[in-house]
Amino acid sequence: MLQIEYSKTAVKFINKMDRPTKQRIKAAIEGLTEQPPKGDIKTLQGYTDGRKRLRVGKYRIIYNFLPNGEIEILYIIDIDISQRKENESMSTATKQAIDLMELLPEKDQNFALEFIKKLVIAWDPDYTKVTPAERAELERAQKEIENGETISHDAINWD
Length: 159
What we know:
Elements: E1 4-7, H1 8-15, H2 19-31, E2 40-43, E3 52-56, E4 59-65, E5 71-78, H3 81-84, H4 92-103, H5 106-123, H6 132-146, E6 150-152
Parallel strand pairs: 1-5
Antiparallel strand pairs: 1-6, 2-3, 3-4, 4-5
């Protein structure tokens, strides 16, 4: 199997997952070692180093194939829009939209949320774009890898 290395940031995210989710993520990442790589894979927009994303349910695994054949797992993103709602780095417009949604009767809030999800999917149907906050996290993860702060695939607790 190809060598797989993870940034500390990616491992921290994995460690927060429940066992079944960890197992799905592990199996999907191991699929990258096959020829051709398996999974819902797309090139990440806005990068010139060949970064890709592997979609596993509501997660995006941002990774790169290195010239030496190694795979580096940079970052894992939860693309569930409700998870992003809590993000402190939200723009003023996003906060205003949430405030307006909360004025709606509860039965209409779900309709508004589904409408917003459709807008997001129209903006990024393949989930290949990253938000400014995700870009900052990716840069931090890249620095960890550049500084040799990595964890091997076999050293991760997948249980």
